[in-house]
Automatic annotation (TrEMBL):
Keywords: Glycosyltransferase, Transferase. Residues 15-172 form the Glycosyltransferase subfamily 4-like N-terminal domain. This is Putative glycosyltransferase. SUPFAM superfamilies: UDP-Glycosyltransferase/glycogen phosphorylase. GO terms for molecular function: glycosyltransferase activity. Residues 187-342 form the Glycosyl transferase family domain. It comes from Actinoplanes missouriensis (strain ATCC 14538 / DSM 43046 / CBS 188.64 / JCM 3121 / NBRC 102363 / NCIMB 12654 / NRRL B-3342 / UNCC 431). One of its GO terms (biological process) is carbohydrate derivative biosynthetic process. Gene3D superfamilies: Glycogen Phosphorylase B (3.40.50.2000). The lineage of its organism: Bacteria, Bacillati, Actinomycetota, Actinomycetes, Micromonosporales. It comes from the Bacteria. InterPro entries: Glyco_trans_1, Glyco_trans_4-like_N, Glycosyltransferase_grp1.
Length: 369
């Protein structure tokens, strides 16, 4: 079947969504299906790749988001879908592309929405008042559930904001490339200026809370641990964080976008994942596959992903630093082996099988009760 996937906020060079779209497309193709991906870009275009055909439609950059583009011309998107004649449609943005559920109903095409973000968490960040935030998230999630035949969530944590509405989404965890990310990339003999290497690997934007990684470094050094922080990633907060680290005298290296982070992930002692609203966390899973344990936020979905191979801490420097110390207290060989073993529970093949099952015509629409 021809599975047409539509996504916004796909960065040209990095990001978990880009990785997921690529790996799912490759899996669909290997299973004998025809994956097509529709994304925004600077100009219209089309190319064929090992993970399916990519159709690019013109879309403007979203202000303040560091290069992400958005499909806003609905007529253009609908015309492309009419031309592509999908057997299934898979949508990867429930904030700006929810209208595609209506298009699919009119066209008689089974539709699937993938919940990559927590609207609960996003609304809490930007809407004052917990009650108002929850009400807004519930209203938007109810519209999503009504618009699509199937909703897929990647964790039980992400499912819960739908379940309280009487909706039962399909749960399909994402995966990690266990060959590409491996402890074999560790550079154990690399010269170090500090005893402990912390790694923050991710986008430097407000919803990711990257400043917590700086604060954790300061807390650890204040207790006598000779740690440094390496930051692999870019975003709107990079300049401010770089200036702040220098002003505080913290040994933090900001590398910007790193095209191939495998050696960093495998060589670090601990990876920090401070985002409070992560619904899966591919970067954390890539760290585990590389043999490096991860400290995550208690309130995010990541505790169920990292399992016993990581430690969940509260969203403050004291709690995060305590979690780092807990990991460092474990024998290095054991903590690295546990990290790899946890990652091996999430092969991309299982994710592909789960998504294809969600697209199956045998599924009853929507999961709504």
């Amino acid at each position: 079947m021809r599975i047409v996937r539509v996504a916004n906020f796909v960065h040209a060079t990095s990001g978990g969504l880009r990785t997921a779209l690529r790996e799912l497309g490759r899996g669909y193709a290997e299973a004998g299906h025809e994956p097509v991906l529709v994304v925004p870009g600077a100009r219209a275009g089309e190319e064929r790749t090992g993970y399916g055909r990519i159709v690019t439609l013109p879309g403007p950059m979203a202000p303040g988001l560091g290069g992400y583009r958005v499909l806003i011309n609905r007529r253009s998107v609908a015309a492309a879908l009419d031309r592509l004649e999908p057997d299934r449609i898979e949508v990867h943005d429930r904030s700006t592309l929810r209208w595609l559920g209506r298009w699919a109903r009119r066209a008689g095409v089974p539709s699937l929405m993938v919940s990559h973000e927590s609207l609960d968490g996003l609304v809490r960040l930007f809407v004052p008042g917990r009650a108002l935030g929850r009400w807004s998230a519930d209203a938007l999630n109810a519209r999503t559930a009504a618009a699509f035949d199937t909703v897929v969530c990647t964790t039980a944590w992400a499912q819960r904001e739908f379940q309280r509405l009487g909706v039962t989404p399909v749960r399909v965890p994402l995966g990690v490339d266990l060959e590409r990310f491996s402890p074999a990339h560790r550079d154990a003999g690399a010269a170090r200026a500090h005893d402990v290497m912390l790694l923050h690997c991710g986008r430097l934007s407000a919803e990711k809370h990257p400043r917590l990684s700086l604060d954790t470094l300061a807390e650890l050094r204040g207790t006598g641990i000779d740690a440094e922080l390496v930051v692999a990633g870019d975003g709107p907060l990079r300049a401010a964080l770089t200036t702040e680290a220098a002003a505080r005298g913290l040994p933090a290296r900001f590398l910007g976008h790193v095209p191939d982070p495998r050696a960093l992930l495998a060589t670090a002692d601990v990876v920090l994942a401070p985002g409070p609203i992560e619904t899966f966390g591919l970067a954390a899973l890539e760290a585990l596959a590389s043999g490096t344990p991860v400290v995550v936020r208690t309130e995010s979905a990541l505790p169920e992903v990292v399992g016993p191979a990581g430690v969940a801490g509260p969203g403050d420097a004291t709690g995060f630093a305590a979690s780092v110390r807990e990991l460092l207290a474990r024998p290095e060989t054991g903590r690295r082996a546990a990290a790899r073993a946890q990652a091996e529970r999430f092969p991309w093949s299982a994710a592909v099988d789960g998504f294809l099952a969600a697209h199956s015509p045998a599924r009853s629409p929507s999961g709504r009760r």
